[in-house]
């Protein structure tokens, strides 16, 4: 009887990593969307931002089926990074911490470094770069453009 | 006691399912320690430039290019080029980058195009005038998108420079850098931008990078429904033009004869319906004129 708390603690200690280290995905683009189906132009169910974390449910071609809070849906593989942890030998699964994971989000060449570069080069027109980054084609217009040109949807 | 037995009845099968054996249980603490050590150690070791960092380099490369070229102010053409570009992007290996893909036309008669790391692509008005239809424009943009997909621009940053940057990044514990560190990193950042600009504007990419970008471009064109032969037709015209022209793309894309051979050898099979080509040519003419 007196060993009961020790045994329970030991078992929970073993099982916790199984639950805690389920595969997760981290958004690596400024913003993105979780879509209803695993294809471009499918209705958006939730908007996500850089560093948002979601649970990986399964893989479907170039898309991941995910669970983000209460929302389930799909996100393209190029918009996320699989978070991996080194648990070799524990559950027969070998994985490593990904490079971006350990880059410690936000470190490296970041807005602070760009700001210092801009101060040093005040003639460079970053406002124009911002405007170029604002050049987007709305989803409906792009679909129409593709269809009218007899082109293929992915 | 009954409660304890039922707890065990639930937990033990779970443990068995997880495939744990006693020696493995013994190693758990070591593994947990290893996770923490690996995370700390790897942050100081070599790692590639992240997508986010590539984005910041690309923005500054774009600013540098805009220091030498003006933007061609024509909304209709800019919208059209972006529509063609985005059509290709969604058929590429990497449809999403940190900041997305954006296309702009440069007001220059020079025949050239630049793929800034991260997703900003410039095409000169001279290049737009040289392509004869939408499929050729798509071919030029697909080639540049390939360079971004394969991180050819960011790959031109000298390894020693990036290694030095990693030392600064790895030794700074705080998320915000101190003045000394930020000054050091800004210097390395500037050097990195110089490396990329030099490759894009002066030296050009290596032959294999160009050949690979052409092959990938034809794959994207085919997937999107554009005629992959349009790339070969355009490059043949480029060769012809190159006999009498210097500078611009002729300086950064030498050996176009061999490029054409590589394209010919790798053109995917299949023909594009002439009526669709004509339809797209019509809207191309409406956008450029």
> Largest sheet of chain A, order of strands side by side?
6-5-4-1-7
Query: How many strands of chain B?
Result: 3
Structural class of chain B: mainly alpha
Q: Number of helical runs of chain B?
A: 14
Largest sheet of chain B: 3 strands, mixed
| Mean pLDDT reading of chain B | 84
Order of helices and strands of chain A: HEEEEEEEHHHH
Task: Note the overall shape of chain B.
Answer: elongated
Q: What's the rounded overall pLDDT mean of chain A?
A: 83
| SS class of chain A | alpha+beta
Q: Major β-sheet of chain A, in short?
A: 5 strands, antiparallel
Helical coverage of chain B, percent range = 55-70%
Element order of chain B: H for helix, E for strand: HHHHHEEEHHHHHHHHH
User: Which regions of chain A are unreliable across 5 or more consecutive residues at pLDDT < 50?
Assistant: 86-103
Distance between the termini of chain A: 63 Å
Structure description:
The complex is a heterodimer of chains A (154) and B (289). By secondary structure, chain A is an alpha+beta fold. Chain A has a domain at 108-154. Helices cover 32% and strands 25% of the residues of chain A. Chain A has helices at residues 4-20, 99-102, 111-120, 126-133, 139-148; strands at 24-27, 31-35, 44-49, 53-60, 63-68, 71-76, 80-83. Chain A has a five-stranded antiparallel sheet with strand order 6-5-4-1-7, with no helix packed on it. Chain B has a domain at 51-155 and 200-288. Helix content of chain B is 67%, strand content 4%. In chain B, a hairpin with a 4-residue loop joins strand 2 (113-115) and strand 3 (120-124). In chain B, helix 4 (51-68) packs across helix 9 (179-203). Chain B starts with a helix and ends with a helix. The interface between A and B is large, with 72 and 85 residues.
């Amino acid at each position: 009887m007196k060993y009961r708390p020790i045994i329970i603690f030991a078992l929970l200690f073993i099982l916790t990593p199984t639950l805690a280290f389920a595969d997760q995905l981290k958004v690596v683009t400024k913003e993105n969307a979780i879509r209803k189906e695993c294809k471009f132009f499918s209705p958006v169910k939730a908007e996500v931002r850089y560093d948002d974390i979601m649970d990986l449910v399964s893989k479907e071609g170039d898309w991941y089926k995910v669970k983000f809070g209460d929302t389930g849906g799909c996100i393209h593989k190029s918009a996320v990074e699989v978070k991996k942890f080194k648990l070799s030998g524990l559950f027969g699964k070998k994985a490593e911490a990904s490079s971006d994971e350990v880059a410690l989000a936000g470190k490296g060449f970041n807005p602070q470094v760009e700001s210092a570069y801009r101060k040093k080069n005040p003639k460079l027109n970053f406002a124009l770069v911002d405007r170029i980054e604002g050049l987007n084609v709305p989803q409906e217009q792009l679909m129409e453009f593709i269809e009218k040109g007899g082109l293929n949807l992915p | 006691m009954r409660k304890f037995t039922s707890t065990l009845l639930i937990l033990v099968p779970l443990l068995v399912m997880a495939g744990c054996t006693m020696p493995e249980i013994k190693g758990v603490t070591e593994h947990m320690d290893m996770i923490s050590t690996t995370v700390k150690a790897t942050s100081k070791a070599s790692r590639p430039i992240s997508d986010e960092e590539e984005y910041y380099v690309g923005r500054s490369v774009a600013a540098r290019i805009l220091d030498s070229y003006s933007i061609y102010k024509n909304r209709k053409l800019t919208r059209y080029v972006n529509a063609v570009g985005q059509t290709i992007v969604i058929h590429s290996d990497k449809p999403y980058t940190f900041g997305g893909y954006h296309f702009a036309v440069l007001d220059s008669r020079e025949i050239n195009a630049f793929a800034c790391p991260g997703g900003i692509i410039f095409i000169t008005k001279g290049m737009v005038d040289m392509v004869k239809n939408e499929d050729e424009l798509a071919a030029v943009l697909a080639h540049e998108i390939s360079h971004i997909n394969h991180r050819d621009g960011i790959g031109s940053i000298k390894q020693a420079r990036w290694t030095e940057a990693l030392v600064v990044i790895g030794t700074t514990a705080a998320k915000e850098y101190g003045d000394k560190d930020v000054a050091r990193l800004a210097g390395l950042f500037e050097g990195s931008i110089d490396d990329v600009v030099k490759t894009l504007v002066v030296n050009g990419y290596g032959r294999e990078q160009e050949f690979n970008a052409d092959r990938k471009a034809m794959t994207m064109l085919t997937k999107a429904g554009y005629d992959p032969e349009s790339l070969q037709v355009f490059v043949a015209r480029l060769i012809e033009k190159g006999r009498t022209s210097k500078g611009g793309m002729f300086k950064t894309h030498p050996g176009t004869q061999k490029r054409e051979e590589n394209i010919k050898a790798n053109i995917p099979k299949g023909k594009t319906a002439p009526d669709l080509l004509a339809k797209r040519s019509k809207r191309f003419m409406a956008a450029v004129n």
